[in-house]
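Q: How would the C-alpha cells look for this protein?
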Amino acid sequence: MADAAYAVLTRDARKCTGNLFIDDEVLSDEGVADLSGYSPAGFDGDLALDIFVDPA
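A: Here is the predicted structure in C-alpha cell form.
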C-alpha cells in the first residue's frame, strides 16, 4: 500500500526509526477508518493477512 509507505516515509525519522509497520495500522494511525478502498474489487470481507503476521 503506497499510502501507508508514504505515511511512514514522511514521519520524523528520529521518532520512528527501528520499527516494523503493518499497513492497516499505519493508515489507522493516520486517521483512515474506511479500508474498503484497499480491498480487491468485489471483495466484501477483511483484508488478507501477510503470511508473516500472526492473526491473533
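The mean pLDDT is 83.

The radius of gyration is 13 Å.

Upvote if useful.
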